[in-house]
Design goal:
The complex is a heterodimer of chains A (723) and B (160). By secondary structure, chain A is of the alpha+beta class. Chain A has 19 helices and 28 strands. Chain B folds into two domains: 75 residues, Beta-grasp domain (Ubiquitin-like (UB roll)), CATH 3.10.20.30; 78 residues, Orthogonal Bundle (DNA polymerase, domain 1), CATH 1.10.150.120. The N and C termini of chain B lie far apart (41 Å). The chains are: A alpha+beta (723), B alpha+beta (160).
């Protein structure tokens, strides 16, 4: 811990010394670690994203990575709109890291929100660049050249298609930032009829996916590649005590066994993929040290009630009025604890990587939410400059926050740099469950109440969890002390109540534990919204009010969009109608990152203690919807995931690692238990696009808990409900 | 006496003896280069590696290649060819029509399970769809669309 001058809080100290500005660490020193890419997408980069090809088609290098959210398709719709072409005329490419400038990590449901404007501006600029060319070709002034589908026409009606503009002097045309004329924006011009935006465009790549032709990282083949595996410590902080590797080295086809005592790892390389298992099995490794923590250690460390006894929380996220005084005058009062466990990503594709290190350059095949971060990490491992490292970023077989860093690729880089041949490393399902980072456990305590009319009297919310934004995987150990001064924005995501209550306080601690915690779908939003929205349901119950009516009563005028989706979810689900015996309905809602508004109603059937989610209704306002089909798909996925964590997901720590390392011990929702989902996309004219990849996950677990209460009268306050 | 090779997607392929004990999934992917069949868990718990063995859906991570000798294997790459002259199998068509895939990684396995179900039960009720497809996990949560796509394919085949 750094020395802090008297009279300064630690945070003041950091701000004054320039380490922290407005909650964000300034990353300036050269000794700082390689970090994710935070460079916002900018229209100035757009000429590198768009090309007119000789056949008249538009090539679009998507600045965002694809993980199934459909961003490549959505952004290509914006391109088609501005360039006045059919969607099929846009060829979408996932660029390598040298083809376009680095862009903000694909995360946080921000891709459409952050890229809509620059993509639209860039495509409009290309269109106007082409109009200039058309004017030259036609011998008229550009202002008299009007749009035609896929090209232009003169005022006399002479048509000229984009393909004709390429001519023979250049094979590809890009936007010219110097054309010096304004580029009207068709995507935002409300007087125009939108042709492509707002349509449920079938995503690109579907045919490749359904025929097995789509290439994921595990499918990459590079000539003369070796097959590698890296054995890692079984728990954080453990080291290699002893390694007997001669037997493995003696196996025919084993190229190399590398013992790295400094880093505590052993690498195995074979000529054939079919002997890798046997080579690994012949290793005799002993690991020692590290934090062999167990589940009860974690639960004690993160016990919110212990922290409350000490009255010690690291951060105050929000504080207004006099909540402690107001609590004394509450007519109805709730004081309750809610807990959610460690959760894994459990993406269907266990991560992999292929890396080829040659004297000239390093070539990387990976699938990451941040290919430029991977480029930097591989550059460091291989001792090259970024110029010498090229990353081909493939479609992710699921990401959900877990693919910012793709460790298998980094291991392949290490092995390839030693042997000088291409190396493939593929993680097993067990490795995927044990050796990635997790959503931290959250332990909440909410003390809240209402007056006689069911209006919130006070809101006191304390919680303990772990770092999510400043995670232990990204921030090296020597800098943990520094990161720990900052209130973690990932941990507190969704932690502030959206309801109107003038006397309130939210405090929390982000405790670093020996288990790596980090980004997971929606960051802290699902655990935090679970606590808030189950508490709201409990308050409605003790105040004797309908759960939706109670929420509406407590929303301020600044929350009209949330009120609208609540009313819409009520309408969609016929909320007021009676539900069959043995069934129950619950509601929950969220304001996600002050951009997207979601209300979910869930109906469950409970039979002999078995809970089955039957139907879900979701009203969702994420502003302008570019592709309703894909936004709906994201909502369906979030609802399935929310049901999954509420019912059955839990990573259990034994000896410092996740003991639930298969789908048997870490089950996820199956087809059998998946509800029917009905979605209503609420769209206020003029609102810009916001995010849809994560928001609906936040209210779903609470809606399920509340539905089970409605069906059974039992309130579950610790997830998962089924252990 | 079993044959020397396996019929994979209509073609007889020879599998060297030293690979007979290797799981079929790995032989398909790394020996035959048929990488549409996916590894998801290696324990038969997720269904990503589903193929057809003599027309029945099985988990290719659960049998050694030697157990398929003399038998007929269909993978996602050969699904269309196995039933019609069309470019795509009706289940694949339905999967596109209903825009089922998100990340797509589990979808070849989902499709192979669905195709085997429809071959056996051309118009399955919802409960049968749910039961049959419950061995195929999807983290993206495409389950409702999978049900819709199977009903879509069933309806198309009734229309003939």
């Amino acid at each position: 811990m750094a020395e802090v001058a008297p009279g300064l809080t630690r945070r003041d100290f950091l701000i004054r010394t320039g380490w922290v500005a407005g909650g964000t660490t300034i990353l300036t020193t050269c000794s700082f670690p390689t970090l994710p890419t935070f460079r916002a997408p900018d229209a100035a980069d757009a000429p590198s994203w768009l090309q007119l090809l000789p056949d008249g088609r538009i090539r679009f290098f998507s600045p965002k990575s694809e993980m199934g959210q459909g961003i490549r398709t959505g952004l290509a719709q914006v391109v088609a709109e501005e360039l006045n072409v059919e969607f099929a005329a846009v060829e979408v490419v996932s660029p390598d890291t040298h083809q376009i400038p680095p862009v903000l990590v694909t995360a946080g449901s921000r891709s459409m929100k952050s890229c809509f404007e620059p993509v639209s501006q860039g495509a409009a600029l290309l269109r106007e660049t082409l109009r200039e060319r058309a004017a030259l070709r036609l011998g008229v002034n550009a202002v008299s050249v009007r749009d035609e589908r896929g090209g232009f026409a003169s005022s006399e009606g002479t048509r000229i298609a984009y393909a004709e503009l390429v001519g023979d002097e250049a094979s590809i045309i890009t936007a010219d930032p110097e054309i010096g004329r304004s580029s009207p924006r068709y995507a935002v011009d409300r007087s125009r009829k939108l042709e492509c935006i707002g349509r449920s465009q079938t995503p690109v790549d579907l045919e490749a996916i359904v025929t097995g032709g789509e290439i994921y990282t595990r499918d990459v083949v590079v000539p003369s590649m070796l097959y590698g595996r890296v054995l890692r410590p079984p728990r954080s902080g453990a080291g290699l005590a002893d390694a007997k590797v001669e037997a493995a080295r003696g196996i025919d086809g084993v190229v190399e066994v590398i013992v790295d005592r400094d880093e505590g790892r052993v690498g195995v390389l074979t000529e054939s993929p079919f002997i890798l298992e046997r080579a690994v099995g012949a290793l005799e490794l002993e690991w020692g040290g590290g934090a062999a923590v167990g589940q009860s250690d974690l639960e004690r460390e993160l016990d919110v009630e212990r922290a409350r006894e000490r009255d010690e929380f690291e951060h105050t996220a929000d504080s207004e009025g006099h909540p402690l005084r107001a609590a004394a005058s509450a007519v109805h009062r709730l004081r309750t604890r809610y807990d959610t466990p460690l959760w894994a990503h459990a993406a269907m594709e266990p991560r992999a990587g292929v890396v080829s290190v040659t004297p000239d350059r390093v070539e990387v095949w990976t699938a990451s939410q941040d290919p430029w971060y991977m480029e930097g990490l591989v550059a460091k491992i291989t001792g090259r400059g970024r110029d010498g490292v090229i990353v081909h970023n493939l479609r992710m077989g699921g990401a959900f926050g877990g693919r910012k860093r793709c460790q298998a690729t980094l291991e392949a880089a290490w092995l390839s740099s030693i042997v000088g041949r291409p190396v493939r490393v593929q993680w097993s399902r067990g490795e995927e469950f044990r050796d990635n980072y997790f959503q931290p456990p959250f332990s909440h305590f909410i003390d809240a109440g209402t007056d006689a009319e069911g209006r919130l009297s006070h809101w006191l919310h304390d919680f303990t969890a772990c770092p999510i934004g400043f995670d232990s995987a990204t921030i090296p150990k020597r800098l943990h002390w520094l990161a720990d001064q900052v209130s973690d924005p990932g941990t507190r995501r969704g932690a502030l109540t959206p309801y109107r209550v003038s006397d309130r306080r939210t405090r929390f601690s982000d405790v670093r534990i020996p288990i790596h915690t980090g980004q997971w779908r929606g960051l802290g939003a699902a655990p935090n919204t679970t606590a808030i929205e189950v508490a709201m349901d409990e308050l409605a119950q003790i105040a004797g009010l309908d759960p939706i009516e109670f929420r509406l009563r407590n929303l301020g005028p600044d929350r009209e969009r949330l009120a609208t989706v609540l009313r819409e979810a009520a309408r969609l689900s016929s909320w007021d109608e009676a539900v069959a015996p043995g069934r129950g309905r619950g509601v929950a809602c969220v304001v996600y990152e002050e951009m997207t508004y979601v209300a979910v109603v869930l109906e469950v059937a409970v039979e002999d203690g078995a809970i089955r989610p039957l139907r879900a209704w979701c009203a969702h306002d994420c502003g302008l919807v570019v592709n309703p089909g894909q936004v709906t798909a994201q909502i369906e996925g979030n609802i399935a995931w929310g049901c999954s964590v509420a019912l059955q997901e839990r990573a259990e720590i034994r000896d410092g690692a996740n003991a639930n390392d298969s789908f048997e011990t870490y089950p996820i929702l199956r087809q059998m238990d998946s509800p029917e989902v009905e979605v209503s996309l609420v769209e206020r004219p003029g609102d810009p696009p916001a995010g849809a990849g994560e928001p609906a996950i936040a209210p779903t677990p609470a809606a399920l808990v509340n539905a089970v209460f409605a069906a059974t009268g039992t309130r579950h306050r610790r997830l998962p409900i089924r252990v | 006496m079993r044959g020397e090779g396996i019929e994979v997607n209509g073609k007889e392929v020879r599998v060297p003896e030293e690979l007979h004990e290797v799981r079929l999934l790995d032989v398909l992917r790394d020996h035959l280069g048929l990488r549409g069949t996916k590894y998801g868990c290696g324990l038969g718990l997720c269904g990503a590696c589903t193929i057809h063995l003599d027309g029945a859906a099985i988990r290719s991570c659960q049998i050694p290649a030697g157990a398929a000798l003399g038998r007929r294997v269909t993978t996602i790459e050969g699904l269309a060819g196995s039933s019609t002259e069309a470019r795509l199998h009706p289940v694949q068509e339905a999967w596109i029509a209903e825009a089922v895939p998100q990340c797509g990684y589990c979808q070849p396995g989902q499709i192979m399970t669905a195709a085997a179900l429809l071959a056996r039960s051309p118009d399955p009720p919802d409960a049968e769809i749910r039961a049959e497809l419950s061995g195929n996990l999807c983290r993206c949560g495409t389950y409702p669309r999978i049900r819709r796509a199977i009903r879509h394919a069933a309806a198309e085949s009734r229309r003939g």
